Amino acid sequence: MVQSIRTVTMTQDPDYGTLVLGYFQETPFYAAILSNPVTDPLTTSNILLYDPPADLNGPDYIEESVTASVGNTIENDIDETFTFVQTKGFSFAGTLHALVNVTIDLDQTDNTYGGAARLETILVELLKYKISDGTTSQLGILTHTINLDIAGIITDAKYAEPSLTELFLFNVGVSPKIDIGQTAGYLLQMRVKVTFSAHTPVAASTQTIAKCKLNCYSNLTKNTILKVPIV
Amino acid sequence: MTKATAMQVFSALSLYPISIVDALNTRIYFSEPVSESAIHAIVDPLGWTDVNILIIDEDLIDPYPQYLNSTRHDSLLRHSLGTVVPHDNLSGLLDCDIDSPADGEILVYASSKWGNVITIDSDATLTANSDDNIATQKAIKEYVDVESLINAIILRG
């Protein structure tokens, strides 16, 4: 494995009696979208990719849009689950970092009264997918309220597409470590749900269209990454 | 202080040439230059004290500075002025007042400006009798020769 961060860690085991000295390697798994889905051990185009380069023929992002009628605020969301499909086993413990990169795009507005596109919340859920029956169990779930918007009149679209990266920390404990892979019978999954909205002022005559992008690996500069401490 | 939403800031600045309010980066884009102090007086009470005020297409940093240099733009054959390479028009130069230049005009510096107010005049009779004309050497010689001859005839009686 490529070593991104190799750190000596020292912590107490669960009975608080013994100091444990060991190594862990924080390995990035990139959210990536395949142009052709895998069908085994499950069918999906959304994968967690280790060791790029990736399938650059796939899309850069997953996009949804929403249109707000005059005087209204309308919500929509992107809800996607990414799976680490390699069946080679690994174990992890401690704190996982999920870095979610999203773009909010004010795509259409009234030319006088403007409109707004708002990034409402980002939810990240870590799951263990049981290969034998396709069921999942939750390792952790966090929701961050973003509540940041972009408003105005679209004159030049490049100014109306800001992006941000939100960090989520999941402490899954150090004992027991969590085993993933074909032998263990589980796959690691990251679910990301981004909620966003469009708003059109009462006085406007043109509907506001907001778009949101969940950026994935092949964008190269805007990635959604799960960093896992492999033990 | 709670930071107002981008839509609230946009509404508060409706009297200005505002284009985009970006709360993710705390930026406000205007389509024309504005008074920063006037904008701050409005947005500071809304919790936007750290705002970046930008003019679309003017205040942004050139993302390709390597392309505008004297090595690449060394010849008009490669990049003609006024198309690829912008340049000032004569009328845009602050110390010039050149209007409809024509053949035979020369530049004179007067009243803090260079102007094409003087014309070369080859008329040997100097009939224009103008402060805005300058006679050519040939015209002067011819005029003087004629006048000298006339005077000589008169003097000789």
Provide an overview of this structure.
The complex is a heterodimer of chains A (231) and B (157). Chain A is 0% helix and 62% strand. Chain A has 231 residues and is mainly β. In chain A, a hairpin with a 6-residue loop joins strand 1 (5-12) and strand 2. In chain A, 36% of the residues are buried. Mean pLDDT of chain A is 87; it is low at 1-8 and 14-20. By secondary structure, chain B is α/β, with parallel strands linked by helices. In chain B, strands 4, 5, 6 and 7 form a four-stranded mixed β-sheet that branches. A three-stranded mixed β-sheet of chain B has the order 1-2-3. Chain B is elongated. The mean pLDDT of chain B is 83. Classes of the chains: A mainly beta (231), B alpha/beta (157). Strand 9 (136-152) of chain A pairs antiparallel with strand 1 of chain B, so a sheet runs across the interface.
Spell out the key features of this protein.
heterodimer; A: 231 residues; mainly beta; 8-stranded antiparallel sheet; 4-stranded antiparallel sheet; 14 strands; elongated; disordered N terminus; B: 157 residues; alpha/beta; 4-stranded mixed sheet; 3-stranded mixed sheet; 3 helices
Summarize the structure.
With 231 residues, chain A is mostly beta strands.
Gyration radius of chain A, to the nearest Å? Answer: 20 Å
Rg calculated over all Cα atoms of chain B: 31 Å
N-to-C order of helices and strands of chain B: HEEHEEEEEH
Main sheet properties of chain A: 8 strands, antiparallel
Helix and strand arrangement:
The complex is a heterodimer of chains A (231) and B (157).
Chain A: E1 5-12, E2 19-38, E3 44-49, E4 61-68, E5 73-84, E6 90-92, E7 95-108, E8 115-130, E9 136-152, E10 163-171, E11 178-180, E12 186-199, E13 208-215, E14 225-230
Antiparallel strand pairs in A: 1-2, 2-3, 2-14, 4-13, 5-12, 6-11, 7-10, 7-13, 7-14, 8-9, 8-12
Chain B: H1 6-12, E1 18-22, E2 27-30, H2 36-43, E3 52-55, E4 96-97, E5 105-110, E6 113-121, E7 133-135, H3 137-156
Parallel strand pairs in B: 2-3, 4-6, 6-7
Antiparallel strand pairs in B: 1-2, 5-6
